[in-house]
Fold this protein.
Amino acid sequence: MQRFSYDEAFSRNIGWVTAGEQQSLRRKRAAIAGLGGVGGAHLLALTRLGVGAFHIADSDAFDLPNLNRQAGALVSTLGRPKTDVLANMAKDINPQLDLQIFPDGVSETNLDRFLAGVDVYVDGLDFFALAARRATFAACARRARHSRRSATRGRRSVAAA
């Protein structure tokens, strides 16, 4: 088995980012709430970009209707918690990844811990999770944390600041 090397694994990012930016990404921590159709894809893309640490939150498990659009949804993962499945997938990309898992999702009671030490929040919450979204974005604003939201429209993602 080949030994993992961060520099070699993410060397083909150079050109998209500079070598200095790649090392900066290695030291960044992103928080992602919601690991379904949007958040799971963001976790894997940011892991492949070389972001070195994440807080991930989702209280749901994969179900059959998720197969058509969610990165971690496979027949072999049905019934398994999204946080566990996506954490394993991300660790398969970068075994040095620092992951903190919030298997109960985000709520007023854990937002302080969820956002502690993060550089950016990426919203992947379900469209109708309005209370959780409001609370999370308000907490980001209080902490002056960068935040991004993205939603699916059909099979396309739409991003906004």
